Amino acid sequence: MSNTTLVTEIIEARKTTTEQALEIFDQLETINLEFMLGRWQGYGVHTNHPMDGLLETFNWYGKEFVDFDQVHPLLFLNRQNQPIKIDPNPTLMNLSAKLNFPKESWLGTLFRWTLPLVKTEQSKARLRMMEYRGQVTATMMYDYLPIHDHFRRIDENTVLGLMDFKRISQPFFFVLKRD
Fold this sequence. Notes:
By secondary structure, the protein is of the alpha+beta class. It has helices spanning 3-13, 18-27, 33-36, 54-57, 90-98, 105-118; strands at residues 29-30, 38-45, 60-67, 70-77, 83-85, 125-132, 135-142, 147-155, 158-165, 172-178.
């Protein structure tokens, strides 16, 4: 099976193993910072990670890269289905590293009602070129969390992201599509 076929299957199925996702990630082209600028819509790739399905449960929209120093790492859909910028809460993120949150739809509904409490217009991350798994690629670094999201190019409008969270040994994978 070719790498292109495997990538297409994973994008469509949104599910694979961590080992297979790493193999694909390592074979994809690296990305420069300029490539990442703009707003991106995303979804998780399930690899039996504790966070599988969590972002979707809470109506995750994606990420926005205004420039290299102004990044909005978490966009979620509000009750009007409009993307809004959320302040990544270190306590909740650390809890997600320790617990396997239930992925019940009512939690997503509840979360949408609380969005005004965590909404922000301030940048909460930045983009830099970093080496990861032997290659230098565009990487988003959260301002207040030990999380780096590394990106590799699938095509002109799609990237495979790998979240490296210091508190979880297994990487979390996601796909971003350019808005």
